[in-house]
Amino acid sequence: MCMKPERIPHRFLALFPTFVPKPTGPQGNHEG
Q1: pTM (predicted TM-score)
Q2: In whole angstroms, what is the distance from residue 7 CA to residue 14 CA?
Q3: What top-level branch of life does the organism fall under (predicted)?
């Protein structure tokens, strides 16, 4: 997913808790 965490609503983050504990994960790689 190439979605930016800053644009992702809190409700969306609730569905994908991996975005928070793993900022360097595959999603974090697309960040920036």
Answers
A1: 0.18
A2: 14
A3: Bacteria
* Nearest-10 Cα torsion for 6, 28, 30, 9: -30
Return the exposure string of 9-24: e unless at least 16 CB atoms fall within 10 Å of the residue's CB, then b: eeeeeeeeeebeeeee
Q: What are phi and psi of 28, to 5 degrees?
A: -65, -25
CB-based contact 18:25 (threshold 8 Å):
yes
22, two tokens: 């793993």
pLDDT digits (tens, 9 = 90+) for 1-32: 565 666 766 676 666 655 555 555 565 555 54
Amino acid at 4: K
